[in-house]
Automatic annotation (TrEMBL):
This is Rab-GAP TBC domain-containing protein. Signal peptide: none annotated. Residues 43-267 form the Rab-GAP TBC domain. It comes from the Eukaryota. It comes from Vairimorpha ceranae (strain BRL01) (Microsporidian parasite). One of its GO terms (molecular function) is GTPase activator activity. One of its GO terms (biological process) is intracellular protein transport.
Amino acid sequence: MKSEDNDNIRKFNITTEIIKQINPYDFTPINIKTIRKFCYLGLLQAKYRPRCWKILLGYFSSNKFKSSLYYKKQRQAYKSYLNDIENTETSYYDVLVNDVTRTFIEPVLFYKKETCAFLDTKHKNSNLTHRSKIIRILKCFVLHNKSVGYIQGMVMLLIPIYKVFITSDDSEDTLYAEEDAFYCFNYLMLNLYENFLSYIDNEQNLKILMCNVWDILNKVDPVLYTCCVKKSIHESPIFLKWLFFLFSTEFKTEEVIWLWDRLLSDSNRFNILNFCIVAVFRNLRTTILNDSYEQIMYSMQNISLLDIKSIFYDGETIRLSLCTLEE
């Protein structure tokens, strides 16, 4: 009981420290390492998530007492970006609009027409739906990142960020959810830039990304790895989608947000992803060892049936075990 009490006291003290750090009116300086540890350990409460995510995604002022001025300038700049997209046409716009239009994260039937309980509701401070706001964010991103453009599925990397802000208890977060989500998404894409360029241009780089995962699996479960090779599963790029889109295309948004608390705060940014992918293979071990290629592919296309928390914790255990062996 005493150990549990000490643990609760420790969590309370860490939480109190983080609240001070993310409060723009408190003198406690921001310590990104502390905030990352706080989020990675799963101590982040929903009401503090918007501010912590802004910090984890590089959207904050280095001088916390100038935060109001910093955000004011960024949000004003975004308005000029909106004017730019009204006066610019690019082939990517059609691709992204079609992709966002087909996206239903919470599908429901309304007068026999499929709609989305979240995306197709209106922003409370605007006549636009969340879907329309997301289209505008992506158009602004494409206009200022023409080397990457838009790749099908990118919308799923934006939705968790936007939803964290638009569902915040803080009125400022909801009022400027579109603007803030744009900058956070832009920063996230900078971190994923090389992966997406590989996706576009370089088959050799794709093979390297795949080999990183297979090397880990071979170290922790050589029997399963050998089976994957024999059944030609190792030639399938199916898990690259999990890697590129941070599992956002596979699980419910709330589950993705839970996972991203940890992915965004990983000190080796997104390194844990490879281990989570290996954890998926190990969760499907019985299927892979005993079933046909077609059945295995079906299971890999439906990993939403797995528990996202188990995948993460198993992945973390795998990473720690390999680090211990290498030491």
